[in-house]
Amino acid sequence: MAFKHFVRDSWLTASYYTGLSQLYHALAGRKRGVISYHNVLPVSSLSAFDTYNVDVTASVFDKQLTFLKKHFRVLPIQELENPQAQGLFLTVDDGMLNNYEILAPILEKHELSALFAICPAMIDGELPHIWRDHLFLLFQQAQGQEIFLPINQYQRPFKITSESECLNSLTRQFKKYVYENQIADIYGLVRQICAKNGWPYAQVMHDPLRYQFMNWGQIQDLTKRGHRIASHTMTHRVLKFLSAQEKQYELAESKKRLETQLNVSVDILVYPYGSMAEIDNATVSAAKEAGYQTALMNVQQHSLSTPHFTLPRFAFPPIADAPHLHAIVSGYKFLFR
Ligand SMILES: [Zn+2]
């Protein structure tokens, strides 16, 4: 595996410096693309936990934007729905405080704008954290202790060692459990885990830049500075596992609450997670029914046939390596799958 990666990376580097990947882009590469970001953090705030590769340092983010502007056209987010607009768009998911404090100022330094995907119930503090962050923070707090989890019906305790790999692997196991059991009431499950372990169900105060949400004033300020807001559903549950009624609440209520709070119209949905594991035809229909015009996924390819409601997106790994980034944006890298 390591050797295969080495060969691929060497090939990408050679392709970049000989101009092959630029030629590929000019002839057959991606003409339009949407990039997804989550968190931009100071080095001191980067956690060892990043199973989903969603955190990048401020300095790498800055370099990635410099790279994008040099080699591609990054378009104003207002052009997203224009099918003629050829270039790249930037999106930022989940609405964490770092988006306002760190990410947006770097975007603006580069004169770029983005679409921010927000969960209104989180902004209103109806839930302490997105469930995955919450579990990670609870596991982190319980390092060195034995804890009880639903993975084995709370029978055998898990000993959490202090290695970050243990936290990552536990979080992955937990995600598998949730998807295999198609759990709709994921926050009920987090509550139950807290109860079984004698923990309060409350916000874990830890690194506000990474784990706290922006407030309404900050989000409104982003809209005034040329950015746009999308709904990311009310509570970031897995839409596919929800009943029709719950889907409507997640989709229609979030749209309404964002529009009321921000006094802008919200016509774009960013599906939480955004892969085929979370989105099916019923989910797409529910998004249309809730009044959205456009919806964004988190994969490049899928088997759904409603283009406006399943726009693909891709993400960068947290690196500033130009050959690698170029191969991702142009699509050249995916020839080697
Ligand atoms: Zn999200």
Provide an overview of this structure.
- It is a single chain.
- Helices cover 44% and strands 10% of the residues.
- By secondary structure, it is an alpha/beta fold.
- Helix 2 packs parallel to helix 13 and helix 11 crosses helix 12.
- The chain starts with a helix and ends in a 7-residue tail after the last helix.
- The mean pLDDT is 91.
- The structure holds zinc ion (ZN).
- The site of zinc ion has 5 residues, from loops.
- Zinc ion binds next to loops.
- This is Polysaccharide deacetylase family protein.
Bound molecules: zinc ion
SSE arrangement, N to C: HHEEEHEHEHHEEHHHHEHEHEH
Can you identify the CATH superfamily of the largest domain? Glycoside hydrolase/deacetylase
Strand order of the largest sheet: 1-4-5-8
Beta-strand percentage range? 5-15%
Shape assignment: globular
Continuous helix count? 13
Oligomeric category: single chain
> What structural category do the secondary elements indicate?
alpha/beta
Query: Stretches where pLDDT falls below 50 for ≥5 residues?
Result: none
CATH top level label of the largest domain: Alpha Beta
What's the number of domains? 2
| Number of strand segments | 10
Q: CATH fold name of the largest domain, please? A: TIM Barrel
Keywords: Signal
InterPro entries: Glyco_hydro/deAcase_b/a-brl, NODB_dom, Polysacch_Deacetylase
Main location: secreted
Subcellular location: Secreted
